[in-house]
Amino acid sequence: MHSNIQQAREALGTHLRALRRAAGLNGKELAEQMAWTASKVSKLELGQQTPTTADLIAWARAVGKPRPPRH
Q1: How far apart are CA 64 and CA 58, in angstroms?
Q2: For the whole model, what pTM was predicted?
Q3: Rounded distance, CA 49 to CA 16, Å?
Q4: Could you tell me if 60 and 21 are in contact, meaning their C-beta atoms sit under 8 angstroms apart?
């Protein structure tokens, strides 16, 4: 049985993968663009690693989704 945290991590990973694919990038290309290992991209997409806020901002920028403004 998955914990709520694990389910949320997996759901986020699925969304990150969709964003990457929509940008026309494979995992290796995204990793190279962000100076990450391909395994980090894979772990984030599979929900095996929790992304930091900086990871999410970098991902969004790399796939062309800028950070929303803070209010």
Answers
A1: 10
A2: 0.86
A3: 12
A4: no
